[in-house]
Sequence to fold (158 residues):
Amino acid sequence: MFTFRPFPARVAGATRPSSQRRAVLTGLLSATVFVSFLALAQPAAADQSLETALGLSMDQAHAVMAIEKKYRLEFAAKRGDFNRESRVLRRAHIARDSAAIAKQEPVVAALQEELRRIHDAENEKIRAVLTPAQRGRFEGVLAQRKAMRGSSRDERLL
Fold:
């Protein structure tokens, strides 16, 4: 059976770590963990607001917010229609009702195209507000957002 023995103070060649040394090592470990969390906590450019990601001026930021607000309402209304019609199509697939599927697929496709059109129009309005350098960064943000979609439900919308 193993019994715990405290660190021998007088063993040849062995020294007990000093409290100062332990404090330094603990501080270094804490700093390393803290910096790691900070690095992980930084949002990707696609998650940042456009103001931060593109370095917008105040006037540009206000213009972009107004554009986003206008299109957000329009997109949300159309997305509600899309979701409702998609549920009808899903039920038709579950029921294996080919007539309902044939009727519903063009409706869902038209709504999906309308959502894409709204999204593209919003991006064009935003591009009009940006400088050429900001447009390049904006394209990068859009590419990152598209890459982040993956298998999410929004991929089929856009």
